[in-house]
Amino acid sequence: MYIIEDMNKKNKMYFLRVGLFLSVLLLCVFPAIAETLSNDIGKDYESEKLPYRVSIFPIFNAADADFTFVKDNSVKNGYVARLDARTSGLLKALPFGQVRQVLTSHMILSPDHKRLISRKFENIIYRNGRESRRIISEFDYQKKTSSWTKYKEGKLNSQGTKEFPKEKYYDDPLCAFYNLRL
Fold first, then answer.
1. Is this structure's pTM higher than 0.85?
2. What are the pLDDT digits (tens) for 34-93?
3. Which tens digits make up the pLDDT trace of 136-171?
4. Which of 126, 145, 149, 168 is the most exposed place for a label (fewest CB within 10 A)?
5. Residues near 85 by Cβ (< 8 Å), separated by ≥ 6?
């Protein structure tokens, strides 16, 4: 009985020491990380290029993807993020052939410059070099509306407009990717 009580005291002290050590480490390291980030999320990622090679076991080199993030000079505080992904290697030889998907997000900075706000998002899929599908979503925060247009094989398939609540921002996949990165 005394051994269990002693062990519990030792465990409590051990966890107390580890917790204290991690707290001190966090207090020392976090300010150093925070200093490297500016107060402008757009400038943190400006001119960034991230190449990826995707492998799915047992297929190595299944796809290649490139993320880019650049300044959009046509709009005040505007940025454009793009993901260009394409099948490669063995997947190109399969019946669905070469597939390429291009996601493009047109964004602006929030008034406090700590977040990106999606204005327009395009999703284009190419199959064997021809455009198969295109979806365009646009967000108008003054009118509080979002609109979308869908094309299939170059022909208009559907379109619509929807209102959304005030003080609400919508993130497309690329906008969310950059907003959630540290």
1. no
2. 444 456 777 777 778 888 887 777 777 778 889 999 999 999 989 999 999 888 876 666
3. 999 998 999 999 999 999 899 999 999 988 878 888
4. 168
5. 54, 63, 64, 65, 66, 100, 101, 102, 103
